[in-house]
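dude i think i finally got it to work??
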Amino acid sequence: MKIITDYSNNYNKPEFSFDYVDKKLNPTLIKIQAIVCETKDKELLEEFLEMIIRSSGSANESPADVLGNIFICNPEIVEEQLSKYKNHILFDYLELGFYNITMYWPLNDKNADLQIRMNKLIAQKDSKR
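look at this
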């Protein structure tokens, strides 16, 4: 948690640029994804979502991809958290990450169901603007 907190609190400072993102932040995000997918740790997911909000100008797509993967493994926890936050940035990251991950997936019932759920979340965002 320290790495994502440090990054979100110091986003845009030179020492938290490319090397920090590539060598510390992105590997940490993969660990967060694994932990949240395995344990459904809401507190960790909330910290991750806060980091996304605070660093929302970043060109790094890893947070979006991680959020998309967490949605794929545990859609319920992401739906619950996004309905609490109601922040359009999070919905945008979810949509980007989901499509990055599923772009080349074959269309089957599971994938179609996930896409429908994701589209319902996005529709909620659009109705709250």
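The longest helix spans residues 18-39.
im so relieved honestly
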